[in-house]
Amino acid sequence: MVVRFSLIVSVFTLSLLSAQNARPGALVATGYRIPTSLITAAPGQLSMISVSGIETKSGLPVKAEYGLTGYPTEIKGLRLRVRPSSGAPIDTQLGGLQQSGCAATDTSCLPITSFTVVFPEDLPSGLTGTLTVSDNTAIIAEFPFRAVSDNLHLLNSCDTTLIWASIFAIAPDAGACQPNIIQNGRLVQANNPIQPGGGVAAYLYGGGATVLRSDEFQRKETVQDFDVHFDYRANAPGSRPVPGISLTGKPFLSVGFGGGVYQINFMIPPVPPGIQLPRCDGTIIRSNLTITISGANSMDSASFCVEPK
Q1: Are residues 158 and 92 located together in one domain of the fold?
Q2: Whose CA is closest to 300, among 239, 246, 210?
Q3: Contact in structure between 96 and 62 (CB atoms under 8 Å)
Q4: Do 143 and 157 belong to one domain?
Q5: How far apart are the C-alpha atoms of 261 and 245, rounded to whole Å?
Q6: What pLDDT is stored for residue 22 in this prediction?
Q7: Of 5, 9, 98, 207, which one has the greatest count of Cβ atoms within 10 A?
Q8: Which residue, of 94, 116, 147, is where some domain finishes?
Q9: Could you tell me if 100 and 182 lie in one domain?
Q10: Average pLDDT over the chain, rounded to whole?
């Protein structure tokens, strides 16, 4: 099923470890593709960016307080700025700062420094330039940067942004990357499975630019529309909807918060007639419903078990 909706606010990308500025012998990345140092972000997005080459800082990790103007623009003398190809530098906000440990006997070790960054809500669409990392007044790293319309990431219990989602305090297995989907005020999990036909709330980062709603609630909503795709199959991967084939339905109003977190509300459609929904067994069949949220530039998905009737 596909649901068309505007996200209403509040704004994440996963950790990016750049090859630039890494000391000789330092791990840059693993996998099956050549890594890129290009950093992309949507307006208002909360993201984690990890770099090498910064000296060890004391008193970490630091989780910044969210105030009337958001998060601070500097922690421990460190600052991240977007420097457009033309125009003045643009400050980002820092929600947290942490470093990987170094062995006490390794005097040459430089830790991996991870920033929890919130990009400006008014980040111009299509902007290109660089993202600079500075320590006090000295620029110590610079990476190519491009602004995108959206960069979706569903919050889950494996995220290490220091931005705590308290609902995960009851997650039985944080290592399973439990997605933050709420039904009847509770986290969707084995003892609270998704109920087809019911409403849920999901939390994510990277919904992009927003506008203020002209109603009595004065909330924000995303400028662009998004799709919610429901796939009732065993172990289905995330996928964009197929026009004329995917299920469609009407979304509920989505609501948002500050500090880069979006909340969206939508209905879970009934299992389509004629589909024999397999029962999850925890080994071969680990899910029988996959929900994919997609925008113009990105998508993310989460898989669940629905109890067949």
Answers
A1: no
A2: 239
A3: yes
A4: no
A5: 31
A6: 44
A7: 207
A8: 147
A9: no
A10: 81
Residue 242 binned pLDDT confidence (cut-offs 50, 70, 90) = confident
**pLDDT tens digits along 205-218:** 998 888 877 777 66
**pLDDT top residue among 7 and 222:** 222
* Cβ(141)–Cβ(20) below 8 Å: yes
Residue 38 in contact with residue 286, Cβ under 8 Å?
A: no
pLDDT single digits (tens) 40-65? 999 999 999 998 888 889 999 999 99
Q: For 59-103, what is the HEC assignment?
A: CCCEECCCECCECCCCECCEEEEEEECCCCCEECEEEEEEECCCC
Residues 92 and 169 in one domain: no
Q: How many CB atoms lie within 10 A of CB 88?
A: 8
- Show the domain range for 92: 39-147
Number of domains in the chain: 2
Decide if 31 is inside a domain. no
User: Which structure tokens are listed for 87?
Assistant: 């125009």
The residue to which tokens 């170094």 are assigned: 102
Q: Determine how many CB atoms are found less than 10 A away from the CB of residue 274.
A: 5
**Residues 266, 247 share a domain:** yes
Do residues 130 and 172 both lie within one domain? no
Between 97 and 189, residue with greater pLDDT: 97
Residue 20, pLDDT > 50, answer no
What pLDDT is stored for residue 191 in this prediction?
Answer: 72
Is residue 112 within 8 Å of 258, Cβ to Cβ? no
Q: Which has the higher per-residue pLDDT, 251 or 133?
A: 133
Residue 208 and residue 250 share a domain? yes
Q: Alpha-carbon distance 243 to 77, whole Å?
A: 50
Last residue of a domain, one of 91, 121, 147: 147
